[in-house]
Amino acid sequence: EKARLAQLKGVPAATRDGHAVKLFGNVGSLQETHWVKDNGGFGVGLLRTELIYMDSDHFPTEEEQYNYYKDIVEVLPDEVIIRTLDIGGDKMLPYYTFPKEMNPFLGCRAIRFCLNNEDLFLAQLKGILRASVHGKVKVMFPMVSNLEELRAAKAVLAKAKEALRTEGIPFNEKIQVGIMIEIPAAAIAADLFAKEVDFFSIGTNDLCQYTSAVDRMNADIAHLYQPLHPSILRLIKMTVDAANANGIEAGVCGEMAGDPDMALLLTGIGVHELSMSASMIPKVKDRILASGMEELKALAARVMETSTAEEALKVLKG
Ligand code: PEP
Ligand code: MG
């Protein structure tokens, strides 16, 4: 079985009837990027950049970031989605004191922190832009909840580009810009966001947490954390439909994407790209190669009609 899966390494993922699905990896380091490649992933769907910040003893400079991203992009130049810093919540930095918050997961994290600390944000965006000459780099903003934030982030990106132009440093002028859809407000208004970005990536970990008001790390209430809850499935479908209606790609980079049954469901809903831990890529690829798109669409339609996560799972398991 292992040997059979290993043979799929060089095969791009597509259904039996030729519907292509990008199978990418979630990474936080160069080492993990090699694992994705070794497991037959053709790109990075989520580079969690906070890991570089957490491993450092200072805010990484533009130059340090550029070098770090460049090494990763050179391993998988076909596509690397670099997510800007998602710090705060439970992710702290040894060299920075975050203000105490009553509700850190509802507080100043991710894009909110970056927009409040523009110099840090600018340094990261310049590092990302510089890496964009080494492969197809896309930039992605986490935890976006309204359009003003997206527009403000794009304005800082424009500043970063202008600074590089002035310095005569090359970058891809047409770098694609996307957002994570991981807050219900963004999923519900996905049609509005779709007009102002090049792609979506659905973060089902936070989307489940925020939609059901369930701490994703709390074992005592883990039974309430339900990716197959009808509300989650509807939010995912709304997001994917909005992307398709506007001609942009929608991916999924939460844990859901790496579950083989759920990966088939997501493909049937119309997701273009699934990003997961490297180790899950061969299994998911195997299942997709063995499925037909019409059968996955029918499966998705049946799952979308269920009323509980338990029912959905039953349908999914056939
Ligand atoms: C998510 O929220 O689903 C996600 C992929 O991001 P993270 O797990 O880093 O919050
Ligand atoms: Mg998240």
Automatic annotation (TrEMBL):
Residues 2-288 form the PEP-utilising enzyme C-terminal domain. Its EC number is 2.7.3.9. Mg(2+) binds at E182, D206. One of its GO terms (biological process) is phosphoenolpyruvate-dependent sugar phosphotransferase system. It comes from the Bacteria. The keyword Heme does not apply. GO terms for cellular component: cytoplasm. The active site is at C253 (proton donor). It catalyses: L-histidyl-[protein] + phosphoenolpyruvate = N(pros)-phospho-L-histidyl-[protein] + pyruvate. Phosphoenolpyruvate binds at R48, R83, N205, D206, R216. Keywords: Cytoplasm, Kinase, Magnesium, Metal-binding, Phosphotransferase system, Pyruvate, Sugar transport, Transferase, Transport. It is found in: Cytoplasm. One of its GO terms (molecular function) is phosphoenolpyruvate-protein phosphotransferase activity. Its cofactor is Mg(2+). General (non sugar-specific) component of the phosphoenolpyruvate-dependent sugar phosphotransferase system (sugar PTS). This major carbohydrate active-transport system catalyzes the phosphorylation of incoming sugar substrates concomitantly with their translocation across the cell membrane. Enzyme I transfers the phosphoryl group from phosphoenolpyruvate (PEP) to the phosphoryl carrier protein (HPr). Belongs to the PEP-utilizing enzyme family. This is Phosphoenolpyruvate-protein phosphotransferase. It comes from Anaerotalea alkaliphila. The gene is ptsP. The chain holds residues 249 to 566 of 566 of the full protein.
